[in-house]
Amino acid sequence: MNRLTQLTGGIFAAILCVLFCTPIALAVSPQDFPPQPPDELVLDSAEVLSRSGRNEISSRLGELDRFHVDARLVTLRRLDYGLSLPAFGEELLGRWSSSTADSNKPLLLFLEESQSKQATVVASPALLEQLPESLLRSTGRTTMSQPLRDGDRFRQATLDGITRLEVVLDGGEDPGPPVQVERVALPTNVPTAEQTEESNAFTWVVVLLVVGTIVPMATWWIFSR
Q: E strands of the chain, at which residues?
């Protein structure tokens, strides 16, 4: 009996752990990450990238080294309650910057959250003159977030963000956010509800006019004979 009670209690505890502990484990904060940047340039904790995608993004991030920039990508599943993605990025940036104080390379972090399909970009203060906060904010909210909302294209979102900032780092003008494609409805021969109602009303008017004309004439013709 005691063994059955222990087994039942163990199963009940496991169920509670699955129900309540798993969502907490999925939510992350900067303290859940290593105190210093890992060797990999892509930290795909949300597991939204394929191996080839990670390799391609890692290669593109590595190309920014020619500008003396330590660029990295971090993907997340879900943030801790009350923590925004920009706030998370700033905290992680401060955490990693303090551990690499002896390095002469400023950090440039691309961050993406899979649950809310949003992105943000943060940079060390040494980069803000060349990459102002308005540019970083626009890159995250428009250039990167649009592919995320349009089919969970995390690879494309990252590459688009890197490309935009790379142009500015290379001395070029900001290419700006992506062009918003306006969806135009194609013409159709199918009548709308309003058109149908108008058509039915016109038909009834014609029918009533015909009836109102023919019935009196037919009545007069019958009784006049």
A: 27-28, 42-44, 70-76, 78-79, 107-113, 118-123
Non-local (6+) Cβ contacts of 224 within 8 A are none
Q: What is the pLDDT of residues 46-64, one digit of tens each?
A: 999 999 999 999 999 999 9
Strands 107-113 and 42-44, bridge-based pairing = unpaired
What is the predicted pLDDT for the residue at 189?
61
Instruction: Mention every residue, 6+ apart, whose C-beta is less than 8 A from residue 191.
Output: 199
In order of 35, 124, 126, 143, the CA distances from 69 in angstroms are 19, 10, 10, 20
Residue tagged 């939510």 (tokens): 27
Contact 158, 73 (CB under 8 A): yes
Q: Give whole-number Cα distances, 203 to 207, 213, 216, in Å.
A: 6, 16, 21
- Look at 107 and 209; give whichever has higher pLDDT: 107
pTM above 0.90, yes or no: no
Q: Supply the pLDDT for residue 14.
A: 47
The mean per-residue pLDDT over the stretch 61-81 comes to 94
Q: How far apart are CA 83 and CA 91, in angstroms?
A: 10
Query: At residue 213, what is the residue type?
Result: T
**Amino acid identity of 100?**
T
Fold adopted by 23-169: Diaminopimelate Epimerase; Chain A, domain 1 (3.10.310)
